[in-house]
Amino acid sequence: MARVVVNVMPKKEILDPQGQAVVRALGRIGISGVEDVRQGKRFELEVGEGVSREDLEKIASDLLANTVIEDYDVVVEGADVEAK
Questions:
Q1: Average of per-residue pLDDT across 62-67
Q2: Phi, psi of 35, deg, nearest 5
Q3: Which InterPro entries match (predicted)?
Q4: What single-letter DSSP state applies at residue 56?
């Protein structure tokens, strides 16, 4: 069993209104010095031995991220995931 984390973030060229709202809110609560905030998503998957790295990439690109406007990375935290 392995734990896999998929982080999904808006591409740099895509406007991030949620991140901008956080920056504005920081000013309202008296915190300065934070230049930019980008908000993304984190998915944690528990996968068995039969799941390959290729499977994980497919899950991330086809299901978890909208690759037109988002980038993603796949991090395997547990046992090795086979490359089928």
A1: 98
A2: -80, -40
A3: PurS, PurS-like_sf
A4: H
- pLDDT, one tens digit per residue, over 1-39 is 799 999 999 999 999 999 999 999 999 999 999 999 999
63 dihedral zone (left: phi>0; alpha: psi -120 to 50; beta): alpha
Length of the chain: 84
Measured CA to CA, the distance from residue 70 to residue 9 in angstroms comes to 5
Distance CA 29, CA 56 (A): 40
Mean of per-residue pLDDT scores for the chain: 92
Both tokens assigned to 29: 């609560």
Q: Decide which of 3.30.1280.10, 1.10.3520.10, 3.30.1490.270, 3.40.50.300 is the CATH code for 1-75.
A: 3.30.1280.10
Could you tell me the two tokens for 63?
């299901």
Q: Can you tell me the distance from the alpha carbon of 69 to that of 67, in angstroms, rounded to the nearest whole number?
A: 5
